[in-house]
Amino acid sequence: QVQLQESGPGLVKPSQTLSLTCTVSGSSITTNPHYWSWIRQPPGKGLEWIGFIDGSGTTYYIPSLKRRTSISRDTSKNQFTLQLSSVTPEDTAVYFCARGSDYGHILPFYWGQGTQVAVSS
Question: Residues 101, 25, 17, CA angle at the centre, nearest 5°?
């Protein structure tokens, strides 16, 4: 059973870097073809896909966030990490980590519970 769990600070100050970790069990983050994504949902808005890292370590970020985003991984811990720099209050959201389906689809199928992050001074 694939399980994902987000962890990280719930409050970040403006201009700082938001850093979240996703701990995975039941699936190896180095297996292809699997896609490990970060998604967020700002208050009162829909889901926004941030980007992914695949089993080979290749990353993709959506253009609007690419300049500020980095997704990396620690294969020894079976974890992958999101870093979002120069945050503003507009980055306040529930952040989810997710994996695509067992058939290798990119679209998230297995989801973590999500973690609330507020950007405020």
Answer: 90
